[in-house]
Amino acid sequence: MSHACAPPAARGLTPVLPVVAVIALLTLPVASGVEGGATPVDAASGVVVLACAIRLLRQRRRPLSRTAAVVLGLPVAGFAVAAVGASEPGTALTGFGRGLQLFVLVPAAVLLLVRDRRDVRLLAWSMVALAVWQGAVGVHQYATGTGASYQGQEIRAVGTFGAGDVMGMATVVSFGLVCAVGLALAPRSAGRQQVWAVVCALLLLVPLALSFSRGAWIATAVACGAQLVLAGLRRAVTAGAVVAAVTVVLVGGFGVGSTLLQERVSSIGQVGDAPDQSVTDRYTMWAAAAGMWRERPLTGVGLKGFPEHRDSHASLALSSGSDIEGAGAEYRKQPLLSPHNMYLLVLSEQGLTGLLALAGSWLALLVLGLRKLVRARGARDPGLDCGLVACGLLVWHLVDFAYADIGGPSSVLTSVCLGLTAWWALAGHGPAVSKSSEEAAPR
User: Fold this and answer.
1) Spatial distance between the Cα atoms of 114 and 176, rounded to a whole number of angstroms
2) Are 442 and 6 in contact (CB under 8 A)?
3) Which letter, b or e, does each residue of 358-382 get, where b requires 16 or more Cβ atoms within 10 Å of its Cβ?
4) Helix, strand or coil for residue 406?
């Protein structure tokens, strides 16, 4: 029996089931009018942290290795400094809790709850399943004209996230696609896993295209390209030819949004010469964030301080907000409360201290993860697909954060992705994950 198909009864219930539950909750529709507030997914992520704490107490073992504690704990320094220097202590305290949740506590809990590679594959397949569901809803929205408004037509695929979170479905589908590509690149002994992973990856190309999200397209292309190169150049060339052929068939042969897609793709090259209003707003908010940083270069304006200081730093080119309509929502203006660039958001609110701490943590995960991945490929490790999934998800975030930031229920998935990357990068550096548990498991 293959490693991926071992009977669950032989191992008992996996401790990552609470994490699977968090992923499953994202299949539910997002209630209108709750954007920016706590969601059931946030509550479920708290249950994940609690489940991890209970498990640690029962096992009476040290929570994290020294390396893992330093790498995952780095962002706390930036959060603390920015919270202390904020002009609105109550708002800053909320931001401090949100930062701990997304970038420290939940990733650490995922790292500690994952026992071995089979748990990683379970979480990866859970994200693929979520992406397929959300993608199916999105394709239906496009086909029936019930999606979010795009160029005067209600055709934009947004899944169950609604018009108020147009990036939610694109993010989820991107994660599923990256996971599917990583699983498809498993050793040939994986058998059926590879076939289904390839099928899912090809299917997910359609809703990703219909999300009309330029940022998600770029990040996914870079992440999947990195996975293919890390898996081997021969596979990269073969997979690239397959994707190109499928794209030609979908767009050219069946006309899946061909005209609008061509316009959207061509607009990527016009963001400097002829930007549309959304790009102009983004440039204006980037400049505002840079202005806040120049005022307080070390500590920033404080957690959750960007909205309060935006108008005093933004030029008149900034519009009053983005138009929201469709997918069951009435027309309204949604205020622009973040620079849509994670690095500039951290720089403006937390200064150089926060950016170096947060980006330093991510960079450490990337370096350690890639080093372990190269060794796994050289040793023909059967867990290579887990490394490709983990590193691919981190690369996706590092690219996407250049023109997006956290927000909405899908943000909790970022924590899960960071936890998977942390497991792959840090499991071999101490007692955070026991190697013997996997070696002793039935194969």
Assistant:
1) 19
2) yes
3) bbbbbebbbebbbebbeebeeeebb
4) coil
Residues near 296 by beta carbon (within 8 Å), at least 6 away in sequence:
85, 351
For residues 134 and 172, the answer to whether their CB atoms sit within 8 Å is yes
Pairing of strands 329-334, 322-326: antiparallel
Q: Can you read off the two tokens belonging to residue 371?
A: 């080093």
C-alpha distance from residue 120 to each of 183, 302, 382 (Å):
10, 36, 13
pLDDT digits (tens, 9 = 90+) for 391-422: 999 999 999 999 898 888 899 999 999 999 99
What are the pLDDT digits (tens) for 162-207? 888 889 999 999 999 999 999 998 776 567 888 899 899 999 999 9
The whole-angstrom separation of Cα 55 and Cα 214 is 41
pLDDT band at 316 (very low <50, low <70, confident <90, very high): confident
> Which amino acid, residue 62?
R
Q: Is 156 helix (H, G, I), strand (E, B) or coil?
A: strand
Please give the structure tokens belonging to residue 429: 């550096």
Please report, as a single letter, which amino acid is at residue 307: P
Counting every residue written for the chain, the total comes to: 443
Domain residue extents for the chain: 13-26+39-273+336-440
Phi, psi (degrees; rounded to nearest 5) at 150: -145, 115
Cα four-point dihedral sign 156, 161, 162, 167: negative
Alpha-carbon dihedral 207, 208, 213, 216, rounded to 10 degrees: 150
User: If DSSP codes are grouped into helix, strand and coil, which group holds residue 353?
Assistant: helix
